[in-house]
Amino acid sequence: MKILVLNGGSSSFKSSLFDVTGKEGAAAPNPLWEAHVDWERHPGTAEIEIKSAGAVSNRSVPVKAPIDALGPLMEMLPHRDEIRVAGHRVVHGGRAFRESTRITPEVRAGIAKAASFAPEHNRLELEAIDCMARILGPDAVQVAVFDTAFHASLPPPAYVYPGPYEWLGQGIRRYGFHGISHQYTSRRAADILGKDLAAVRMITCHLGNGCSLAAIRDGVSIDTTMGFTPLEGLMMGTRSGSIDPGIVIHLVRHLGLSAAELDRVLNKESGLRGISGVSGDMRTVLEAMGRGDVRAQLAFDVYVHRLRSETGAMIASLGGLDALVFTAGVGENSPQVRTAAVEGFAFLGVKLDAAKNAQSPADTDVSMADSAVRVLVVHTQEEWEIARESFRVVGGVP
């Protein structure tokens, strides 16, 4: 079954085409076709990179809005007449959606309702759903795979905020995000270790521009760092992560910041970018550190401090730790971050193999043979996880 996957973000869009049989192993197969669209680098232009049959091609398309790039992108899509299923990453499922599901008018309405929690993402995903209905035709099945669904297993003490109890009835609770990545990464890590996922107490560290941890026990998420929105938790590329709520009150009361201004400051002007003054990209921050930039060094140190602190909290939730897994852009490609993070847990007997770690090998155990905790680097494959979930939802029959 050929399944088209659409993974939209606030600044880029990934699409992949898979031929799924349901007999694949834990590792992701190579897609038949994949595309990456970036519209933040050059405003008003969508930069499209296509990979197909081993060849790479690039194209620039003028756009007024991100969704405008989908039409030209689909013109380059092979096997178009054979595609009967489209799987969409939907960031926020709210209280209504606790697992992947076929998209119906009722489901679409529910996704629209949850857009108030994640407006940038859910609205783009709704546009992609509508666009696919036009391009693939009314007979195509569309599936929503929710980033929050993996964390539906959180117990009440982990998802209830210590505010007024009425908040819970209003949908104000911790949902967790990056669930598609945490789901794939945890299953792949267990496969690398040669163990049943349910038998491994694991922390998956999704460290990209957005960052989150998930504590996984008995094969399910029991705690995570992101909450009501993707703003909670770790320090990120441009997001602050958790801060004292009194800061927000202070900024409103004494500096007169509006909701829109707070949104911009906390989501776009904080994190690595806010502290370093250089960039929200860890690679650029590390380069600045190498030149002796004091603020870049501080940004790195704060990032690591918060990472260690939140990892310690996840270990407490798990009651111990068997495996620590790093994934996503920073997690997969920064030996410095992995080294600094693991050093904080040397007292638990965690030992990195420095030579292996320096190579940033994908899907590899980079810990020493006598390490009390296994440390893995896993290349996250969100698109493949969306394809697998879509196949499961349709039961192999669209």
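[next item in queue]
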Amino acid sequence: MYEGTDTVVLFAELAYEDILPLRWRAATGQISDAFRRSCAESNLKVLQACTALEEHGQPEKADEHSQYHADIVRLDMKINLLLDMVGQILIANRPRPETMSIRFNTLGAVWQHKGALPAANALGVLEVYLRECVIDPLRLIGTVISVTDETRVKVKFEPPGQQIADLIEKLAFRRHRRQIAGTRNPKRGA
């Protein structure tokens, strides 16, 4: 879905782009307020977990000269390895949907859909699994605004609430910052 720009945007705002397991679930009727509240609570936990995992093991530069820096780096690598193994066990016991190329932010999402296409103007829930070691997906309620012949689906989300919106924006910003750092210093990676 690369569009020839360095900054990933959607609906004129910074967006998160990746290849992730995801699923569109069309609503069979109106979505209840209880389900909306449940999604909000779950989304908050999922995004907080992802934030904690991304911030884990990033000591301040001043710590590089401390006597414990090498020990902290080793512990960080071991914890990351353990999280990856737990993620693989979770996936084996709780299969995820197929991975698809997706771009999303607080306003909406666009992805290359595999399988039967959702109907235009359909209300539903987009489930996005952000990390292997986080069991629950991010569940975003929205309406399909377009479906192209190339299987590209575009959804406009209902406002997720300020706290969740802030965490999604931070997620997209951190991803963007890592991509910029990767292009400036390819050895560090994105």
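[queue empty]
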